[in-house]
């Protein structure tokens, strides 16, 4: 899971920390009731408690966080997100975005106002249409994917995907992990660190989070 906080340094830290504690704890105890239902409810719970915390403390008012998570049951991957943190699938040197951004720029893309290349220059590309803890109501999106051996999943904040293009993500991961079938945990850590370093080299001016998951 990756949660990218917003609403000032202190408030953003608290919102993202609350999300990363509340969501997994809820899933552990409620997954048996249905994972898709539990994914929705866990993020909604975090949303309500973050809002309550913000309302009770003027210093934290308006805080929120993005949330993207993946939960495995057997070969099925359950993916849930709110905001613009993303999850990608890297398979056979191809990359696919599995989550869908909740951002103003994505709304414009959905409406066909312009294409992806033009979207890169949009001055409002960082404006979110929803975030956990910020609005009155949120709509949690949950997707399922049948994971395959040697699939690599990347969960990341916009501090990474906003600075590193998808082709460079694939190139970096393939360089550090040339053969997923024999990859080690250390190689996964090295690949994640390499992606963060690349985002910084490209002018990183935001928090950068990256989690890599390899399917055995």
List the helices and strands and how they pair.
Blueprint: E1 5-6, H1 9-30, H2 35-56, E2 64-65, E3 67-73, E4 76-82, E5 86-91, E6 94-97, H3 104-110, H4 116-119, E7 141-146, E8 152-156, H5 158-161, H6 166-176, H7 185-201, E9 210-214
Antiparallel strand pairs: 1-2, 3-4, 4-7, 5-6, 5-8, 8-9
Helix pairs in contact: 1-2, 6-7
Write a concise synopsis of the structure shown.
The protein contains seven helices and nine strands.
Describe the structure.
It is a single chain. The chain is of the alpha+beta class. The protein has a domain at 1-83 and 130-147: PPM-type phosphatase domain (Phosphatase 2c, domain 1). The protein has helices at residues 9-30, 35-56, 104-110, 116-119, 158-161, 166-176, 185-201; strands at residues 5-6, 64-65, 67-73, 76-82, 86-91, 94-97, 141-146, 152-156, 210-214. The strands form 3 sheets. A 4-stranded antiparallel beta sheet has the order 6-5-8-9. The chain is globular, with a radius of gyration of 17 Å.
């Amino acid at each position: 899971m990756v949660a990218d906080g917003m609403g000032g340094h202190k408030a953003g830290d608290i919102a993202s920390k609350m999300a990363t504690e509340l969501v997994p704890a809820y899933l552990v105890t409620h997954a048996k009731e249905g994972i898709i239902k539990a994914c929705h409810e866990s993020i909604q719970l975090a949303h309500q408690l973050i809002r309550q915390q913000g309302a009770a403390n003027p210093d934290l008012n308006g805080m929120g966080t993005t949330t993207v998570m993946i939960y495995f049951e057997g070969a099925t991957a359950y993916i849930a997100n709110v905001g613009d943190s993303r999850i990608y699938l890297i398979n056979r040197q191809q990359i696919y975005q599995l989550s869908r951004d909740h951002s103003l720029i994505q709304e414009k893309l959905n409406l066909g106002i312009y294409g992806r290349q033009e979207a890169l220059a949009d001055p409002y590309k960082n404006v979110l249409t929803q975030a956990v803890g910020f609005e009155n109501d949120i709509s949690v999106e949950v997707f399922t994917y049948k994971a395959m051996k040697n699939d690599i999943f990347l969960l990341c904040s916009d501090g990474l995907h906003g600075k590193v293009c998808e082709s460079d993500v694939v190139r970096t991961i393939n360089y550090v992990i040339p053969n997923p079938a024999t990859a080690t945990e250390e190689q996964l850590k090295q690949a994640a660190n390499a992606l963060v370093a690349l985002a910084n080299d490209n002018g990183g001016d935001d928090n950068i989070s990256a989690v890599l998951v390899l399917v055995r």
